[in-house]
Structure formats: C-alpha cells, structure tokens
Amino acid sequence: MSDAPLLRLRALEQVFDTKKGPVAAVGGVDLEVKAGKVLCLVGESGCGKTTTARAAAGITRPTAGAVEFRGKSLTDMTPGEKTAYRRAVQYIHQDPYAALNPTRTVASTLTAGLKRHGLVKNRTEARAKAAELLTLVDLTPPESYLDSYPHQLSGGQRQRVNVARSLAMNPELLICDESTSMLDVSIRVSLLNTLGRLRDDLDVGFLFITHDLAVAKYFAWDGEIAVMYLGKVVEHGPTPEVIGNPQHPYTKALIGAVCEPDPDLARANRSSEQLRSAEIPSLTDLPAGCAFHPRCPAFEPGVCDSTEPALEGTGAAGGRRRVACHIVARDQRRESVQHAQSRDDRTLVLDPNKSPGAAWSA
C-alpha cells in the first residue's frame, strides 16, 4: 500500500462573515489521511472540527488553503474528476434522526445514489444491492428493513442505514462527524466495530470527528489523533503517543476529563491539569499570543501571551509528533541540550598513556 496521502489539507482556513465581524472558524490546518488509516479530530464543541470536515468533503469552499485528494486540489479538478471525488469521499452525519428522509423507505434511500450514478441497471438489481449493503452493516435479515421507514427504526439502526448509504458508492474515504455520539454505549461499540471491519476489509480511510478521547482511543489506536482548539491543531501524533504521553496542556485537560473507573487514577488525572478558567474565548475576540493561555495551567506571562506558538515537531514518534506550545518547545530544547551534554560527557574518557594536558580523547 502506498504511503501517499489519500486526503491532504494544506493551510486550510475558513472565515465566516458575521454581524460582529469576520470569524475564523478554522485558522490554518495541515492534516493528512492515508488509505486504510484513521485520523481522529478531537476537541470541544465549537473548535472547528465539523467546519474542517465539511471543507474536506467538498461541501463548503475554504476561504484559503487547499483540499487535495490523491495529490490533486479540488479547485483544479475537471467536472469528471470532481464527480469521481464526490463518490470516493462520503460523509456520515451526526444525527441519525435528521440524516434520513422520513418519506423514503430504507431501500429507496440506499438505491437513490446507485441510480443517480448509473451503478445499477434495473430495480431488481438495485434492491439486491441494497440488501447487500444492509448485510455489510449487520442489519440482517435485510428483508426485514428494506421496506421500513426511518420512524420504524431505532437510533442505532438508523445510523447503520446511514453507514450503508455511504458505502453504496464504494468510497475510499469516510468522514464521520460525531457519528456515534447520539447512540447508547453498547450500540456505539457495535457500530465502531463495524466501521473498523470496513476499514480493515475494504481499506477505507477515515477522518473521524469526536469530542470523546475514549472513542478516539478505541477506534484509532493504530491511527493518529489531531487535537483542535479554537480552529487550530495544537497537538498531533500517533494515538498511543498522544493518549499515553500528552504534551500540550489542553490535551492533558481533555484526557483528565475522560471517565476513569480507577478512583485513584481519576483523582490524579483531575488534579494534574486544573484549568485556570472554564470559559472559552470568543472567536470574534481571540486573546493575544497562544489562544489557550487564559485557561492554561502552564501559563507564563510574557511568553504565552506575546506570540502565537507554531505547530512544531518534537522529534518523538519518528517525527510524526507535533505540538503548538511555547513551554513544551522550550522544555524540549532544554532536554535536547542536556541530552547532548550528557552524551558528550560519556564519550570523553581519560587516556592514561597521555600527559594530563592532553588527556582527553573521544
């Protein structure tokens, strides 16, 4: 399998004009999704996750930056290439109740796209394909669901129909926008397992959006996590690294908010990163410097409130770990210097055959 990214976002920006002035919902995001891999986009409500996803799906046109699919920007695609892109990239919405047309049966919902793109020849073939899709998402026997209307289905069943509809186009990338947040825990795990099987068996890539780091850990353990705050990515790296060794104070706060069955560990997590404030700054009046500094427990005056930190590599996880924090970057530099000095001290040894004036040799 090629290492080339399936989807790439380059300096993606999305600015909305409002009565209070321009609002930068997304402020320069660089991300990649590879075939058969999962990238989880996590953060609080209003941080820009859905806006980023909608731009990646081609639903909205970004104000600046580029969305590239298999190395080609959406703005440079021919009409035929854009049609192929829209088939290859499918979107699963958050609300399973609002995402389905209440006047259409399940069979009608699943076959609409197939008929539109000429992927089936007749009604019999379309119905057979719809039954195949329902079987793929564990709605069996499919005959029990084909002629049902959305109001006759549970929330979990509706969301599986949404997943089946997205698979009708044989997608290469699924964008899941909080697609499990409205489901019960048991149904949520079952749906995540279904999506994981599709990822492994069909080599489908995922841009998976969630505010729940526990879900991100479960679904994207072999993938990557990008943590967003007020329209910017503040930490990005392999899931085991981000979950097991968070660097940015905001990521630490998110992990501390995850429900932990061990009371001692839960208490330690909560006490380790107490936010200075629970209030999120307004996008129309962002603070100077690091946007997180009014809430950050590691805040240092004159440093965090002076300039905006860049999203820089930390050297960990094979160079795939990036963090946007002045304090973390400074500590990393200090550790690098100390490590280099310690290594030099270990390699310098006293040679007894030389005079004291020339006693050191590597």
Automatic annotation (TrEMBL):
Residues 7-255 form the ABC transporter domain. InterPro entries: AAA+_ATPase, ABC_transp_ATP-bind, ABC_transporter-like_ATP-bd, ABC_transporter-like_CS, Oligopep_ABC_C, P-loop_NTPase. Residues 332-348 have a biased composition (Basic and acidic residues). It comes from the Bacteria. Pfam families: ABC_tran (PF00005), oligo_HPY (PF08352). The keyword Transport applies. Keywords: ATP-binding, Nucleotide-binding, Transport. Transmembrane segments: none annotated. The keyword Coiled coil does not apply. GO terms for biological process: peptide transport; transmembrane transport. Residues 332-362 are annotated as: Disordered. GO terms for molecular function: ATP binding; ATP hydrolysis activity. CDD domains: ABC_NikE_OppD_transporters. Belongs to the ABC transporter superfamily. NCBIfam families: oligo_HPY. This is Peptide/nickel transport system ATP-binding protein.
